[in-house]
Amino acid sequence: MSNSVKETFSAPEPRSGSTPHHPGRRPARAPAATAAAAAAAATALPPAPAALAAKVRMLGPTMTRSMQRVAEAVAGDPAGCAALTVTGLAERTGTSEATVVRTARTLGYPGYRDLRLALAGLAAQQESGAAPAVTADIAVDDPLPDVIAKLAREEQQCLADTAAGLDATQLDAAVTALAGARRIDVYGIGASNLVAQDLAQKLLRIGLSAHAHADPHLAMTGAVQLRAGDAAVAVSHSGRTVDVIEPLRTAFDRGATTVAVTGRPDGEITQYADHVLTTSPARESELRPAAMSSRTSQLLVVDCLFIGVAQRTHDTAAPALAASYEALAHRHNPRG
Asked: 132, 152 in Cβ contact below 8 A?
């Protein structure tokens, strides 16, 4: 299981010297409230048994240490835990019955009985081979065919985890904001900037005014020009990247609708986001940096954003896309 499930994280204090408060700024969202909102949304419909491990990886960092022990136990040994009563699981994990019930609800189940049924279903899937275990990390001496297979399985798991944890209500609200925005700024640094550029270019091709800023100075320069009716999207897996948080906070202060794409629903970045889209926690090894898997998750989320916006603005998006294809056609088929 990912180490992110086994550690307790707390949101960092806001950076001193950040963008000054705007006189009419909205109150920042508390990270704890963001995590609680995500957990509450998850209770709307109990996740399928196969999504349980994804829920643990996604929500583990937001849990207390005692709740994490329960989550680790049920994800690590679904068959064994399915055979336990709520009292038995509390004793096994050194917690209380109340903690077991709270963990079940945080994972999206109305109560422990529902979680126990999901564990039995997951155990049956694993026994039948329907849910293979996550592949091991790539080794230095792995032959290329094994590298291909391991990376493919890892990417598939990453996409499945992200899809399982993506809040459709938050996504719908973010799509609405982008579809009606006068201007859209997108912020990202490093690998996240590749994702930011991808989103901005797609939105531009369907006729929206979208700009991706990798340079933090340009990002801040653009952010101070935003106002109500505009939108800003920040991409940061860690949720702690100052060069992404600062322009998002400025956009938030100026009244723009803000969206955070992050792997940390309790991160500082969510304080300045009207809508939070959570990606899968990244697994990191010696040869595979976290940026590789986080990029895969982020691309899925921004693709969902783009398709939603394209659907919402189809009457103008379709002609704009056709015009861009026509304008670039001769570059794909150069004349001799």
From this structure: no
d(CA 117, CA 107): 13
Residue 141 per-residue DSSP state = T
- Predicted structure pTM score: 0.64
Tokens of 244: 């992404």
Residue whose structure tokens are 């990798």: 214
Half-sphere exposure of 69 (CA within 13 A, CB side): 13
The predicted pLDDT at position 13 comes to 37
What backbone torsions phi and psi does residue 110 show, to the nearest 5 degrees? -60, -30
> Are 231 and 256 contacting, i.e. CB atoms less than 8 angstroms apart?
yes
Tokens (6 digits) for 319:
């002609």
The DSSP element (H or E) to which 78 belongs, if any, is helix 78-82
User: Shortest CA distance to 71 belongs to which of 85, 88, 84, 57?
Assistant: 57
Residue 330: what pLDDT? 80
- Sheet containing strand 257-262, edge to edge, reads 210-213, 184-188, 231-235, 257-262, 275-278
Confidence band for 61, pLDDT divided at 50, 70 and 90: confident
Rounded-to-integer distance, Cα 30 and Cα 16, Å: 17
Which residues fall within 8 angstroms of residue 2, CB to CB, at 6 or more apart?
A: 57, 60, 281, 283
